[in-house]
Amino acid sequence: MSGARIQPRSVARLAAVQALYQMEVSGAGVDAVVREFGEHRFDRDVEGERLAAADEKFFAELAKGVVSNQAKVDQGIVKRLASGWRLERLDATARAVLRAGAFELMFRPDVPTEVVINEYVEIAKSFFEGPESGFINGALDAIARDARD
């Protein structure tokens, strides 16, 4: 994610993707991961540089919201995958990005569609150099049409 001034919600979205990934690969529960981020990752200096502030409440809402609505979120994503593709075939990071973005599109109508899609495409670009960000853009756009039209 680039830019001189990163907004607290943008930091929260990135952290939510990282938390979802961490939960998937480690098997840790959402409450433990949210607590860990609050205690050890937010408001810290890294190599003398102050990290951008995160909207910690929004971060927790995203992480916990994805987990508590995961069946519906995953169903919304799977509906928009190519025929024959299963969610498990996607890279774990791409799954985390899609889950967080789909959750916002499906359960946070107060956040504009364009903001959600742009934010998660930028997050995808920070993790992937290939076509994944385009795939995520297309999938989230389709999920938005399903959820918000």
How would you describe this structure to a colleague?
The chain has helices spanning 8-26, 30-41, 56-68, 70-78, 92-107, 113-127, 132-148, and strands at residues 45-46, 49-50. The longest helix is centred in the first third of the chain and has 19 residues, at 8-26. Strand 1 (45-46) and strand 2 form a beta hairpin. The model has no long low-confidence stretch (mean pLDDT 90). It has a single domain (8-148), classed as NusB-like (N-utilizing Substance Protein B Homolog, Chain A, Orthogonal Bundle), CATH 1.10.940. The protein has 149 residues and is an all-alpha fold. Strands 1-2 form a two-stranded antiparallel ribbon. It is built from seven helices and two strands; from the N terminus they run ααββααααα. Helix 1 (8-26) packs across helix 3 (56-68), helix 2 (30-41) runs antiparallel to helix 3 (56-68) and helix 5 (92-107) runs antiparallel to helix 6.
Explain briefly what this protein structure is.
This protein has 149 residues and is an all-alpha fold. It has 7 helices and 2 strands.
How are the secondary structure elements laid out?
Blueprint: H1 8-26, H2 30-41, E1 45-46, E2 49-50, H3 56-68, H4 70-78, H5 92-107, H6 113-127, H7 132-148
Antiparallel strand pairs: 1-2
Helix pairs in contact: 1-2, 1-3, 1-5, 2-3, 3-5, 4-5, 5-6, 5-7, 6-7
